[in-house]
Amino acid sequence: MKKQLLSFGFMLLALGSFSQKTASNDPFVMEIDGKGVTKSEFLQIYLKNNNNPQFHKDSIDKYLVLFKKFKLKVAEAEALGYDTIPKLKKELDGYKKQLANPYMIDSAQNENLVREAYERTSNEISASHILVRLEQNAKPQDTLIAWNKISEIKRRLEKGEDFASIAKSKNGSEDPSAVNNGGDLGYFTAFQMIYPFEDRAYKTPIGQLSDIFRTRYGYHILKTTGTRTARGSVKAAHLLVSAGKNATQEEKNNAQKKAGELYLKLKAGEKWEDLVKLYSDDPSSNQKGGELPMFGSGTNQRMVPVFEEAAFGLKSDGEISEPVQTDFGFHIIKRLEWKPVRPFNEMKKEIQSKVNKDERAKKTQDSFVDKMKKQYNYQLPKLNGLTWFEANLDSTYFQGKWKADKLKTDLEVFSLDNKSYTQKQFADFLEKGFRGIKRDEFKKVVEGQFNTWVKMTVLDYEESKLESKYPEYKALVKEYHDGILLYEIMSDKIWNKSVKDTSGLKSFFNLNRDKYIWQKRLDATIYECNSQKNAELVYKLLKKKKNTSKEIIEKVNVQSELNLRVKMNKFDAEQITYLKGRTFAQGRNKPYNFEDKFYVVFLNKELPIMKKEFNEAKGIVTSDYQNFMEQTWLEELEKKHKITFNFDLLYSLDK
Q: Which domains does the chain have, with CATH numbers?
């Protein structure tokens, strides 16, 4: 989450007297404006921000510099009323509900869902689908139109029309990808689709059509097309010859030719690491043998499908693929390691976490609500207060026009933990909650809406108790609360302000201009060759000034695309290993060798040390200006807010 705790930064520590104002089992380690920070709160944040926590004085002092900066900003946000801003309160309420979900489930049912998810993780399924889009709160007339459309498609499928043809057709699937894939989603497994879709796919027999079902995206029909044991995960390396989407056909052809030549070299026994280092265009991996992170198969994984299929198609470690084309260019893939799906006991915790955040968790809520009803003594009165609604609801309800203005009584309709909930409260819920309600007998509508209201009330009531029941939940809520305020006040006071303050930014640049300089640079064209012979050919061709770089490339690469590549730029020689420490004359320079490559440098001119113009340094100037603004602001905050520390306690945290 982008608004979790941000980097604390640095500023001087405050000293001062300290008062013990909290329970002895969780004393304050710090106070700011009289508000205490408990030992447990401090430890939670300290341990989360330190992979190798140390509790000696020097480490604690160093961390307190950061922690104080963080707390000053949060205190200022609270002083300015950021915690009362409606959009931030709404945002925090949303996070609180997410954080509350794991605490409001039926444990036994949850265990079953974890095991179900593991079984699905171990067995992938493939399916095709057709979607008719429909908003979750669609009007009845729109719902009817969508239903009629999906029903007609289902009828055509049942008559034997081709699934892919219907999906691709003008009046077929409203999933944009269907035009290209005919609705084919390929193989997927647990957590890679929304749960209702995943569940229907796994429960539909192979080769058969599902019933029409609805998700938050609309109405679906799916057809399962296959199943297989999950392929596990694979670690691979690659050698990339780049040719992106915007490359010309000539560039793509040259890249394909180059990749083919490299593949033949590898098959002839040349060393993988050497060729990757020399020729791969992936800067993130070419210095480490092309190695990529381990990835799994199926939808939403790390790799594009073509790359994934090629990697999993390799049968043994060390095997390499023929060049494979993706939108990035041509890849030669080497399998490094393959792992099957891990045993349940190793994956249980990971799957449990995913289940708790997934729509699966909602399945356990009904039984959980029943338990909470018993715990909080849920009671229905003898006199049924719902009969008035059954008699007075009419067709205007489904249009959002019904009002309970004729209701004269306010009878209790249920009680929870000795608190009464009445007809007028239910009427308010009904008036606001008409969207998405299916037309039915009014008695059934009232009953369904009442049950929904009771469930929501029970869950909201239990959620209000969570902070007193579960200290870890309370700590998480506090962390999100502070993170939201911190992000918002930093945006207002520093980040956005610095971007808008163009005059202040330029003034800062002018005052500090001596900091922003170009070192000596070479305005040059660099010819990188794979052999001394080719480098000498380049050197010879450069003698005739009429030979352009493009013409030289064409002449040198006539036999192989691996012979030469050219770079034209203004180079900071001290930052580039093959240029560092060398002296170049103006014009062409003799070939030299560096790490198995041969270089010919054509120097247009050497650029002296010079000051950068504002537009050349704007990025780093903006960063420096933000740091300056933040430091100035923090100095103001330190004068405004009083901070004290309990150093005796802080220095004994490990005891």
A: 1-79+472-509+617-655 (no CATH), 233-339 (3.10.50.40), 379-469 (no CATH), 517-611 (3.10.50)
